[in-house]
Amino acid sequence: MAMSKTVTKFFPVKRSAPDERSQVGIHLKLVDDSRPAAEQTVIDRDFTAVYGGTHTLTQAKNKVLAEAQAAIDKYKAEVALNSLAGYANAVNEINNALVL
What we know:
Elements: E1 3-14, E2 22-32, E3 41-51, H1 57-83, H2 85-97
Antiparallel strand pairs: 1-2, 2-3
């Protein structure tokens, strides 16, 4: 399984007055080339946080990083489950038990 990621800077969006805070973040695209061609993009979304006021850039970065990493970790856990022989056996048992 070869995964690759592309991270692009999310263009900051300033909120309306009197709120001086902005939405900042990234767009993450995660591709897994071990999947069928039409299903290789497994994450393709924005991760954002509030910056400004009492919210520092470090806080925004940490929030975005934690959420993006959690999404990657979730996908990797799903791949691990899908690879378990016991899961495949259970699906086969269900398939064989279904009566038409």
